[in-house]
Design brief:
Layout lengths: L1 H26 L4 H19 L12 H20 L7 H8 L2 H12 L6 H29 L4 H39 L3 H10 L9 H12 L3 E3 L6 E3 H26 L2 H23 L5 H17 L2 H17 L1
Antiparallel strand pairs: 1-2
Helix pairs in contact: 1-10, 1-11, 2-8, 2-10, 3-7, 3-8, 4-11, 5-7, 6-7, 6-12, 11-12
Membrane topology: Multi-pass membrane protein
Subcellular location: Endomembrane system
GO molecular function: UDP-N-acetylglucosamine transmembrane transporter activity; UDP-xylose transmembrane transporter activity
Length: 331
């Protein structure tokens, strides 16, 4: 029952979160900072009350380690959101972040001296190929769009897009490094996922002072958006604030669902559910928002997710399950 409920939370929470994030970004492309800030404040307050017991509970993992983890986490979150300002379409943004398997494996080999099976290396090739296809096709679209203007404007737009790709690449590698660091901490101190969730969202809050001007400007823009009546409650509020509120709540639901999954399921199940959720979010984004997506984009997307499923050894698990059913029937 717990597992089914967690899967429901992940799909409903994460997919809804992507929808309202895109609604926000389409209206104000540079609003990533205020969205991230709102999410961090909400999760930090919830964690302070229910996990830290209003400061009375001491952390199981030293705070100094959380400071290192939080620095990486904050950097990744801000860069991923800020990359949307550089001609990066939401589908490409989601596909690119699906390359976390590659980054994790590469850094695992370099830092942890890990060795993997042939199927794992094949998955790297597939995921890399899929991301490469989608990236190249998106670059072509940027070039085609920018070619309507002058040559100088076209070059500027393309360089702008390249900066966004560089930012996503850096965030991908930094996220993988954070995952390895978190893995070593859990081996040393034990798993404390909910505690880590709280400190990852609480400690970075002072860092948002650096982004205060941008956040304040978007507060004003959000307040000037079209007022709407909130159903059931009957309160009137600007529509962008409503979108942000729903985005924050669905983000929390999504993270809580993933947390429950990690405590009740194997890592294989968690990875599979999150991968399928990404795929569903991507398809919904393309269809609902009519994002430009060519046949080559579909090929690239399919290759990315086939590679991801290969990495999680889903095929082996399915074959083993079928073999087990055949043996039971034979008996």
């Amino acid at each position: 029952m717990g597992t089914a409920f967690a899967v429901l939370l992940v799909f409903v929470g994460c997919c809804s979160n992507v929808v309202f994030l895109e609604l926000l970004v389409r209206e104000f492309p540079g609003c990533g900072n205020i969205v991230t800030f709102a999410q961090f404040v909400f999760i930090a307050l919830e964690g302070f009350i229910f996990e830290a017991k209003c400061g009375r509970k001491k952390p199981a993992i030293p705070v100094s380690n959380y400071v290192i983890m939080v620095t990486m986490f904050f950097t990744v979150s801000v860069i991923n959101n800020y990359a949307l300002n550089f001609n990066i379409a939401m589908p490409l943004h989601m596909i690119f972040r699906s390359g976390s398997l590659i980054a994790n494996m590469i850094l695992g080999i370099i830092i942890l001296k890990k060795r993997y099976s042939a199927s794992k290396y094949l998955s790297i090739v597939l995921v890399s190929t899929g991301i490469f296809i989608c990236t190249i096709m998106s670059a072509k679209q940027v070039h085609d769009v920018s070619s309507d203007g002058s040559e100088e404007e076209g070059f500027y737009a393309f360089m702008h897009w390249l900066i966004g790709i560089a930012m996503l690449t850096f965030a991908l590698l930094m996220s993988a490094r954070m995952g390895i660091f978190q893995e070593t901490l859990y081996k040393q101190y034990g798993k404390h996922s909910k505690e880590a969730l709280f400190y990852n969202h609480c400690l970075p809050l002072p860092g948002f002072l650096l982004l205060s001007t941008n956040i304040y400007n978007h507060c004003i823009l959000f307040s000037q958006s079209t007022p709407v009546v909130v159903p059931v409650v009957g309160v009137t509020m600007p529509i962008m604030w409503l979108y942000l509120l729903i985005n924050v709540i669905t983000q929390y639901v999504c993270i809580r669902g993933v947390f429950i999954l990690t405590t009740e399921c194997t890592s294989l199940t968690v990875t599979l559910v999150v991968t399928l959720r990404k795929f569903l979010s991507l398809i919904f984004s393309i269809l609902y928002f009519q994002n430009p997506f060519t046949a080559w984009h579909w090929v690239g997307t399919a290759v990315v997710f086939v590679g991801t499923l290969l990495y999680t050894e889903v095929w082996s698990s399915v074959r083993a399950a079928l073999r087990g059913d055949k043996e039971k029937k034979a008996e």
